[in-house]
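Progress report, Aim 2. The chain analyzed during this reporting quarter is listed below.
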Amino acid sequence: MPSEKHTAVKYYIGVDVGSASVRAALVDGAGMVVAHAEQPIQVWEPRPDHYEQSSADIWAACCSVTKEVVRGVDASQIRGLGFDATCSLVVVDKQFQPLAVNCEGQSHRNVIMWMDHRAASQVKRINATQHRVLSYVGGAMSVEMQPPKLLWIKENLPESWEKVGYFFDLPDFLSWKATGVTARSLCTVVCKWTYTSDRGWDDSFWNMIGLEDLVKDKYEKIGNHVLSPGEAVGKGLTAGAAEELGLPEGIAVAASLIDAHAGGLGVIGADVKGHNLPCENQPITSRVAMICGTSSCHMGVSETPIFVPGVWGPYFSAMVPGLWLNEGGQSATGKLIDHVVRGHVAFPELEAKAEASAQSIYTYLNSHLDLIKKSLPVGFLTVDLHVWPDFHGNRSPLTDLTLKGMVVGLTLSRGLDELALIYLATIQAIALGTRHILEAMQAAGHEITTLFLCGGLSKNPLFVQMHADITGKPVVLSKEVESVLVGAAILGACASGDFASIQEAMAKMGKIGKVVQPNHE
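Predicted structure tokens for the chain:
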């Protein structure tokens, strides 16, 4: 914890709600994480493709990790609070009490998770309308966005639908809990709900898809007061929320971001001077931020709107104010690697050997690959083993959620060598998926020279090197592995007024750690 001599230091808190846990960080004005805490949250999977959470469980975890990171810190030094979260859908009644999103009537399970694919038939009907708003989501809406989920609730849970007071994107639910203000972030409503920064909501879209009830009350249920990410919400932290979070009442609370966008904010604006990178002295538009965790997102910004078939956006000001955002993505990356490795017959042997050598399973696999690669680069080991990685459908650029995964080149061998090879082939397949997305973006007009990686998978050196080799572009890793938390703290820093703009905070608080060059061999 900070020592006495740093009394003048200003601190910002970033809270990040991921798929399986909530994390908080205390971050200083130079973007350094001073304290960090994490707590798991519950996920229910009542049937295939249905994933649910509890907003009460999530908020309780937010309070506990925030209290932990500020323990022993002078409250007067804490200047602002920023939230980011997965783009899951929170449903509450008119008194803000949780409403069931399931047929079992379990009202505490009031969150449909981002990765829930229950609304497949609804999204198919929405896409069949070919409405003009779909041109801003790569031509086809994803089942992971909110309109299909809203339609699913209306058609399958009429009782809940009648009682609904508010539908929140999870990041907006958190800023409401903290401030009592139901304002929404431009990031969530533009990226997941079809709002546009110039025209707002499009009545004809909601009428056409059968959700005309949302239009009738002037969008009260889904948000008619929209703020830019990083803007201060209301009068800051309410007395009740301050007590629950262990923070001073009235500190600035920022309009929030979706988790991947917070990661993008935490890395994409970093100062790269002196690293001999192609993006040095080039605008930020030559960079793509890749946030790689359970799934992966590819964030590219442009001065003018670029429509990329199969890639979400262009979204104006949804991540960096004043710039258009395109967002590619892969629905299962960390989840896929885990699935392939843990499902292999040699996994118990791997687990035992990794434990015996006090290494993580992935560190052990990486060194095992180094042992068997002989003199050639490790990538050549999979010359006749190939994975098609769309085990959970393809988000970009094929936008086909019916696609399935595939492995070609299997033999009867069952040992650790084979497990290591299929692990490598899976990572290569994910990197080739990234290359597919980048090529689609470049064909549409993006000029990308450098990748900026953050998130859990960026800690795996093999994953990083394969992305450099397969895309042929240098990969920049941020100094703080927890870039998403830094991104959330940047929002809090902006809301506090300590920085003039998000861009200034990004440059001061985003720091480069390491550069990985492609091996052109």
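The mean pLDDT is 95. The chain is about 35% helix and 20% strand. These observations will guide the mutagenesis work planned for the next reporting period.
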